[in-house]
Design goal:
This protein has 149 residues and is an alpha+beta fold. The protein is built from 4 helices and 6 strands. A 6-stranded antiparallel beta sheet has the order 1-5-6-4-3-2, covered by helices on one side. It is globular and about 40 Å long.
Length: 149
């Protein structure tokens, strides 16, 4: 298993779950639903309009990758609270696709194994405050990312 973490920091497991929604991704309409609902979840959690859009953009990028490279998977959007009472959104994305061979390379701008611009994963990392990705060749990829209020 290969793993990459933003700033080499593993996400703390101590965040308290306040609300959770899972979106199964099998077709493009599922992506639109996940993006729309993510904005609603972020708004209800107290995020301002700009941050709602940023979190929804991260979900859109992750959903695009799942549908493009693995055909199906899921995204879980969770409202969390850390030990200091700070509220945030955690996005979990998971697929059972072929996996990513070189995570370090995949996290570089303009790198793509498909016919895309290669900006998806790096932009999600920039948008979110915390980011980690794990991938097993032939078994799939798991991403967790958090953005705090």
């Amino acid at each position: 298993m290969a793993k990459y973490c933003k700033n080499n920091r593993v996400l703390e497991a101590s965040a308290k779950l306040l609300e959770s929604s899972t979106f199964e991704l099998n077709e493009e309409n599922d992506q639109a639903t996940a993006v729309f609902m993510t904005r609603e979840i972020a708004k209800n959690a107290g995020f301002n309009l700009a941050d709602e859009v940023m979190v929804a953009t991260a979900v859109s990028e992750l959903a695009t990758n799942i549908l493009r490279y693995a055909s199906c998977g899921s995204i879980r959007v969770i409202v969390i609270q850390n030990a200091d009472g700070r509220t945030g959104i955690e996005i979990g994305a998971e697929d059972k696709g072929k996996g990513i061979r070189d995570l370090k390379l995949a996290m570089q701008d303009n790198y793509s194994t498909g016919e895309s611009l290669g900006l998806g994963l790096p932009s999600v990392e920039r948008i979110m405050d915390e980011f980690e990705i794990e991938s097993d060749i032939g078994q799939g990829t798991r991403i967790r990312a958090r953005r705090w209020l």
